[in-house]
Amino acid sequence: MAEVKTPVVIKVGGALLENPQIAGQLLGEIKALQSLRPVILVHGGGPLVETLLAAMQLTSTKIDGLRVTPDEQMPYVCGALAGSANKSLCGLAIGAGITPVGLSLMDGGITQCKVLDEKYGAVGVPSVGKADLLNQLLSASFLPVISSIGSNSDGRLLNVNADQAATVIAELMGGDLLLLSNVDGVLDQDKQLIKELDQSRIDEEVAKGVIKDGMLVKVAAAMQAASELAKPVTIANWSAPLTAILNNQTGTRVIPASQTSGA
Ligand SMILES: Nc1ncnc2c1ncn2[C@@H]1O[C@H](COP(=O)(O)OP(=O)(O)O)[C@@H](O)[C@H]1O
Ligand SMILES: CC(=O)N[C@@H](CCC(=O)OP(=O)(O)O)C(=O)O
Is the model's pTM score more than 0.95? Predict the structure, then answer.
């Protein structure tokens, strides 16, 4: 029987698109990785959302790293995430010799979303759906490129934080999860890289206010995926070589309770 290879789910923050050279380099590394293992790309687009909302003279606020999203802003949020960000990354993938398929969380029932809390407006919490579509695309060597726009069962469009989206996709596929951003990983109060983070160190750094804003959501999402998958999740810089990230030579590894020495 053919060996089933564990997919790699790579999430990139939207700020990557502000640096097409680094983005192109990463896509080139993803192309090389695809010859070894299936890859799924999940992306954010926070800066694009900000720019578009500002151009429309709309204001936007975040609570604990999550954007408060009134339903009337969803056309712009969808346009930025499922439109501009998704198609820009697909274009960069094509430039790297990859055949991408641009998707959102709702396509093929990949995830189902529920409204988080009406105080956030149209913000969704995703849960695992069906893997069939992704399995078909991966077996045909396509690169799924997934934006974090989802829908609830009534068809209400919801804005999902892209780290949470990637977490759920990694859980659905049993994949290895890399959360790539514009920082080397999770930094301590002296701006030094923390190489390993378990739940008690997370609680400590959050209480001190060292882990905050977007990193708060990212670390919580990483720990959720690590616990669900019973394996570490990596938070690293998209400028680092992908092989170094995969070989744990750089970045922060978020370790689930099942793998800490006290477990
Ligand atoms: N302890 C920390 N270590 C590293 N970055 C942190 C930390 N606390 C807060 N941050 C902030 O979190 C940001 C990464 O989160 P975010 O902007 O949401 O990234 P992305 O858009 O790539 O998902 C960093 O650029 C940094 O400003
Ligand atoms: C609910 C919520 O916060 N949604 C995020 C979705 C995009 C995102 O997560 O983008 P980054 O990965 O670039 O931060 C937002 O509107 O910014």
Answer: yes
